[in-house]
Specification:
Main location: membrane
Largest sheet: none
Helix content: over 70%
Structural class: mainly alpha
GO biological process, one term: response to antibiotic
Order of helices and strands: HHHHHHHHHHHHHHHHH
GO molecular function, one term: xenobiotic transmembrane transporter activity
Distance between the termini: 33 Å
Number of helices: 17
Protein name: Multidrug export protein MepA
InterPro entries: MATE_fam, MATE_MepA-like, MATE_MepA_subfamily, MdtK-like
Radius of gyration: 22 Å
């Protein structure tokens, strides 16, 4: 390591451990919020443009979203698993081990993506039926999914590159890569779908091309040494413990995203009993709240490296301060968005399918029900990210499994037979309410432990 590089690393360490918490988290959160919002917006753009092709086409986007959520599940597991370990290792000034973790996570993601591409293309139509496709939706879903599967290796690799940059505290570089790809997707959607007459396949091609652009930009940050962590094939770990640590640390993210995929598939199956308008409406509602929740998750990803760095450096008071600052800010943000969502719900639904009054009615009720519990969402996000980044993997996994697994799946199976379509619309809000309550079972012992560490440090000082 040369002197210039060592000095730069020391500057970054000082920044992460001494900058005032509110300033540091806000600085890191703004780029991550922009990245998450752009990603959610281009997903909404896909839904918007595809919806113009008909109600069945709109439903297909919801079906393939389950597949994308599964790819994201493994991508997030490897990306956040690597990133959480890297932030702690850099906080402990263990740079070479951070290089190993980053390289191992990146190449694992590429191999996984190739496996998904091969298996997904072989079993394409059975897979679409398994994810909840009706006979009328199946042709659209198959055309859309075919191209998404081809982009799986690039998507997986991008998640790791993105999270490694964030873990270093270099969220702006991450934002540039993700945002430029997302903007390109929005531009290409109408050109490919309508201008070139490719229909729903055009939306998928636009998504894959934009993912490739994002991947190249993010990879360039590492090739040009703008990142602290160095990725190289020779840095891939030969120790099984490294792979286990990445998977264990990121498993909470896998549960969160993987269960999101399963939950969406089961939701589609339950909604299909009420026709294509119900599937389309719940698909659109899902995309709307993906945009809303992206803002909170983006803010949480600005908080996460701060918590990890300072926990690794044993600055426990800063970890506590970061938690409560992020929680209060998140509640304020979600409350504002909940009020806005309640009053604009019919207009939001009409943006996508103004020709279908049934879609608008079903979606409006679901949007408003979700808005009622939206201010509770930040506690789950910040708690989960805290446990994940400090190494409490079991707690993080249980909490991440709660929202769309432990609570959602039983509710989506039980409620529709009891109260019909209302059961489909109310399952997610009720699951969010129960997840909020569950957080306190983990937070009480955590803060008891953290406060004891703070008091011990103050006595020693």
């Amino acid at each position: 390591m040369d002197y210039e590089e060592e000095t730069e690393e020391q500057k970054q360490y000082t920044r992460m451990t001494q900058t005032p918490i509110h300033k540091l988290i806000t600085t890191l959160a703004v780029p991550t919020i922009i990245s998450m919002m752009v990603t959610a917006i281009y997903n909404m753009a896909d839904t918007f443009f595809v919806s113009q092709l008909g109600t069945s086409a709109a439903g297909a986007v919801g079906i393939v979203f389950s597949l994308m959520a599964l790819i994201q599940a493994v991508g997030f597991m490897l990306g956040i698993g690597s990133g959480s370990l890297i932030s702690r290792l850099l906080g402990q000034k263990r740079k070479e081990e951070a290089d190993q973790v980053g390289s191992t996570g990146f190449f694992m993601a590429l191999v996984f993506g190739l496996a998904v591409t091969a298996l997904g293309l072989i079993f394409l139509k059975p897979l679409m039926k398994l994810l909840g496709s009706t006979p009328t939706i199946l042709p659209y879903a198959s055309d859309y999914a075919r191209y998404i599967l081809l982009g799986a290796p690039v998507m997986g690799g991008s998640f790791v590159l993105n999270n490694v940059l964030r873990s270093e505290g270099k969220a702006t570089l991450s934002m540039v890569g993700i945002s430029l790809g997302g903007i390109l997707n929005i531009i290409l959607d109408p050109i490919f779908i309508f201008g070139m007459g490719l229909g729903i396949s055009g939306a998928a091609i636009a998504t894959v091309l934009s993912q490739c652009v994002s991947f190249c930009i993010l990879l360039a940050c590492f090739l040009t040494k703008k990142s602290t962590v160095r990725l190289h094939i020779r840095n891939i770990s030969r120790k099984g413990a490294t792979y286990l640590d990445i998977v264990t640390t990121g498993f909470a993210s896998f549960c969160r995203q993987g269960l999101a995929s399963i939950a969406t598939a089961v939701l589609n199956v339950q909604a299909a009993a009420y026709g294509d308008p119900a599937v389309a409406a719940m698909s659109i509602v899902g995309r709307i709240f993906m945009l809303v929740l992206a803002a909170m998750i983006g803010f949480g990803q600005g908080f996460q490296p701060v918590a990890g760095f300072n926990y690794g450096a044993k600055n426990y008071r800063r970890v506590k301060e970061a938690f409560f600052f992020s929680l209060k800010t998140g509640i304020l943000l979600m409350t504002i968005l909940a009020v806005a969502g309640w009053f604009t719900a019919p207009s939001l639904m009409a943006l996508f399918r103004k020709e279908d009054a049934q879609v608008i009615a079903i979606g409006t009720f679901a949007v408003r029900a979700q808005c009622l519990v939206l201010p509770l969402f930040p506690l789950g996000v910040i708690s989960n990210m805290t446990f994940q980044v400090i190494g409490k993997s079991l707690w993080a996994t249980l909490l991440s499994a709660a929202r769309q697994g432990i609570f959602f799946l039983p509710l989506i199976l039980l409620l529709p037979p009891l109260i019909g379509l209302y059961g489909v619309q109310l399952t997610q809000p009720l699951a969010d309410l129960l997840t909020f309550a569950a957080c306190f079972f983990f937070l009480v012992p955590f803060f008891r432990e953290l406060n004891a560490q703070v008091e011990e440090q103050e006595r020693t000082a």
